[in-house]
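User: Please fill in residues for this 202-position structure.
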């Protein structure tokens, strides 16, 4: 099973072996008394819970501590296709520092902080290679702050490896992460990563 609500549906099935993959260190269910009760019932009906990072595994263990060790936990790290990053980009000596953000335009990814961090800085640009429900609001904020010359929204792209080669560093401002896939992609492209010290990334 993967993601809500399939998690609850599969937990009720009578199949001989059930495995659930956990992708985040936090979610809204964990802050609801009702869903916490439902979760603790559902998790015990799985034979194994597979986390995509050590940070996710530690967070899940802490969340499920009241039910003891009856739920088996395993960690299988997320990953990327390294062949897409086999060619190293030439060293860039541009006067302008080119930052890139990759993810989704949601409150969890907190791209607004990345945009705010470059506001007023000379010779610094930010390319936003993401999309999501907050895009229109963020674009309006960029317009209001007169940052159109500095911040570019590209939306969803399939050429992220090539885009990374044309930038100096990746910036991540997520509030929480299950596995910082964007950070791994950037490091594979030999870019430094500016990111918060949070589970799943730090």
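Assistant: Residues filled in for all 202 positions:
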């Amino acid at each position: 099973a993967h993601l809500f609500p399939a998690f609850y549906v599969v937990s009720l099935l009578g199949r001989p072996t059930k495995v659930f993959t956990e992708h985040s260190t936090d979610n809204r269910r964990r802050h609801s008394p009702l869903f916490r009760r439902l979760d603790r019932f559902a998790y015990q009906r799985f034979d194994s819970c597979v986390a995509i990072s050590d940070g996710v595994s530690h967070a899940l263990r802490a969340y499920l501590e009241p039910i003891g060790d009856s739920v088996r936990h395993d960690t299988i790290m997320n990953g990327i296709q390294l062949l897409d990053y086999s060619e190293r980009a030439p060293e860039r000596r541009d006067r302008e520092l080119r930052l890139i953000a990759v993810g989704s335009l949601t409150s969890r990814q907190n791209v607004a902080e990345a945009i705010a961090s470059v506001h007023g800085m000379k010779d610094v640009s930010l390319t936003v290679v993401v999309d999501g429900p907050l895009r229109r609001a963020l674009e309006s904020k960029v317009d209001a702050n007169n940052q159109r010359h500095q911040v570019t929204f590209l939306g969803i792209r399939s050429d992220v490896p090539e885009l990374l080669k044309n930038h100096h560093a990746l910036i991540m401002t997520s509030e929480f992460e299950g596995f910082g896939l964007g950070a791994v992609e950037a490091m594979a492209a030999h870019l430094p990563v500016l990111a918060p010290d949070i589970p799943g990334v730090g």
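For context: Helices lie at 6-11, 33-43, 54-63, 111-118, 135-144, 160-165, 181-188.
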